[in-house]
Amino acid sequence: MNEIKLGLKENWKQFFLLVIVNAFVGGMVGLERTILPEIAEEEFNILAKTAILSFIIVFGISKAVANYFTGALANKFGRRKLLILGWVFAIPVPLILIYAQNWNWIIFANILLGINQGLAWSSTVVMKIDLVGEKNRGLAMGINESAGYLAVGAVAFLTGWMAGEHGLRPYPFYLGIGFVALGLFTSIFLVKDTLQFVAQETKSSSVKKLKNIFWETSWKDNNLGSITQAGLINNLNDGMIWGIFPMLLAARKFDLHQIGIIVAIYPAVWGIGQLFTGKMADILNKKMMLFFGMLMQGVALLLLIWAKEYYALIILAILLGIGTAIVYPTFLAGIAEHTHPEQRAKSIGVFRLWRDSGYAIGAILTGIIADFWGILPSVYVISFLTILSAFVILLRMDR
Fold first, then answer.
1. What is the pLDDT of residue 2?
2. What gap in Å lies between CA 115 and CA 399, rounded to an integer?
3. How far apart are CA 201 and CA 347, in angstroms?
4. Smallest Cα–Cα separation from 116: which of 36, 31, 191, 46?
5. In this structure, are residues 293 and 323 in contact, taking their beta carbons and an 8 Å threshold?
6. Phi, psi of 205 (to 5 degrees)
7. 146 within 8 A of 274, measured Cβ to Cβ
């Protein structure tokens, strides 16, 4: 039997195989990023913002729950089995999006998509942390999240372009059939489990075990609780950007090509940026990285209210992407740093439960505000909450 060695260099083949798998996972979300609000209005005549954002609400809830169970079951069943199960749930998604006859079909597709994302993305996150050990956790998370969100951005751009050239359906969703086939094949035949790496790291870990993983990760622990609330707020504002941002751009008379470019820039910068910010999280103070990243997001969201020129919106999308890139790998590296190896998967599952609940909370909150008072007041509220979250980190987090 080969000796188990922790490290990115020592396990680079499996690591980058998981990076590729996560790109396919991210691509599944990118399918919807640009054009689903347009489909709601043009094909199904849904005008209420809350109703349109219902697809994000169910996505966020199902992903959050799947995240939690992935963390809770990862040690019992193994990471690889949960990854494969995640791809099985994705099989019907592109077909439902192609053939949907009413909005309820879209809702059902997003329940399945949320389960796919929770199982598959969480599994790749935990597996990469298992492989690299303590030294390069931030870098590992930067590469992982970079691959996922670069895929989100690239596919968001492609679907916007394809919709502009060939119509909203079915061509943009053909990409999803390819992602599912490749992701499932790779996960079944090439990916190996990483439980043995956890056992190896446990031998040398000095991190104390948490008494109650759920409550301490959720709030009670100063460091874990601060990271978790910021994760929730981060995805709360991302839920708003996903659902409201395309509507705001359409209201300002941008066409689908322009909307696709602006919407794609944000996750693309988010993705590329994490190649750098992930390593920074291994070197710099995590508390200050999280504070400045959340603050940058909040200020950029606030400026969206007044930005009406195409290039001004591109600049703000870049700033949003940079802010999110600063915090995203730092969240996961911080959670891993403050939890025992044997509890890590469950703690990350709890964090991701609350973080991805932010999608649903953000979609509900912004949908209600947009329906009653308009899109711009919803942007005000979300930007305020994001700035507030930054100061919670500054005042509460130890390091």
1. 61
2. 33
3. 16
4. 31
5. yes
6. -75, 135
7. yes
State whether residue 146 is helix, strand or coil: helix
Please list the ranges in the chain whose pLDDT falls under 70. Answer: 1-2
Helices (H) and strands (E) counted in the chain, each on its own, are 17, 0
Buried b (16+ CB within 10 A) or exposed e, 87-120: bbbbeebbebbbebeebeebbbbbbbbbbbbbbb
pLDDT at res. 1 = 44
Q: Is 3 exposed, middle or buried (0-12, 13-18, 19+ CB in 10 A)?
A: exposed
Q: Do 138 and 278 touch, CB atoms closer than 8 A?
A: yes
Q: Is 398 helix (H, G, I), strand (E, B) or coil?
A: coil
Q: Is the peptide bond before 170 cis (omega within 30 degrees of 0)?
A: yes
Containing 358, the helix (H) or strand (E) segment is: helix 341-373
Residue 109: closest CA among 154, 155, 59, 74: 59
Q: 26 and 149 in contact (C-beta within 8 Å)?
A: yes
Predicted confidence at residue 367, as pLDDT, reads 87
CA distance 68 to 90: 18
- Residue at 386: amino acid letter: T
pTM: 0.87
| Distance (Å, whole) CA 211 – CA 214 | 9
What are the structure tokens assigned to 136, written together? 């390069």
Can you give the pLDDT at residue 100? 95
Cα–Cα dist 36/260, whole Å: 12
CA distance between the termini of the chain: 40
DSSP string, 156-221: HHHHHHHHHHH-SSSHHHHHHHHHHHHHHHHHHHT----HHHHHHHHTT--PPPPSSHHHIIIIIS
For the four alpha carbons of 335, 336, 341 and 347, in that order, the dihedral sign comes to positive
- The pLDDT of residue 28 is 95
Output the six-digit token pair for 266. 């944000």
Token representation of residue 54: 């219902």
Task: List pLDDT tens digits, range 73-112.
Answer: 998 999 999 999 999 999 999 999 999 999 999 999 999 9
Q: How far apart are CA 50 and CA 233, in angstroms?
A: 19
The amino acid at 343: Q
pLDDT, position 387:
98
